[in-house]
């Protein structure tokens, strides 16, 4: 039961973190997920971001949290930019 509570707490904290991002940051996060998922590449980053902007709504946190392999997709997108999660850990 403690594990279920931990998962619920983690999910709640992640949801709150995403909701607290400004609109541009939420759009970037969705576009990054799409990039890492293979919906485009760096050459069409602006197109991916424009599409994420058009699709933006108040359900960004639910959409992202409900995406299987979200962390893997974000990690892949960061690697395409020559970055890793570790590059950002000190800022969190």
Report on the structure:
This protein is an all-alpha fold and 92 residues long. The protein has one domain. It is 72% helix and 0% strand. The protein has helices spanning 2-20, 23-37, 45-55, 60-65, 70-80, 86-89. Helix 2 (23-37) crosses helix 3 and helix 2 packs across helix 5 (70-80). The longest helix has 19 residues, at 2-20. It starts with a helix and ends with a helix. The model has no long low-confidence stretch (mean pLDDT 90).
| Overall tally of domains | 1
Q: How many strands in all? A: 0
Tell me the β content: under 5%
Q: Quickly give the structural class.
A: mainly alpha
Q: Kindly state the mean pLDDT as a whole number? A: 90
Describe the structure using short key phrases.
72% helix, 92 residues, mainly alpha
Layout of helices and strands:
Blueprint lengths: L1 H19 L2 H15 L7 H11 L4 H6 L4 H11 L5 H4 L3
Give me a quick take on this structure.
The protein is mainly alpha-helical. The chain contains six helices and no strands. It has one domain (13-89).
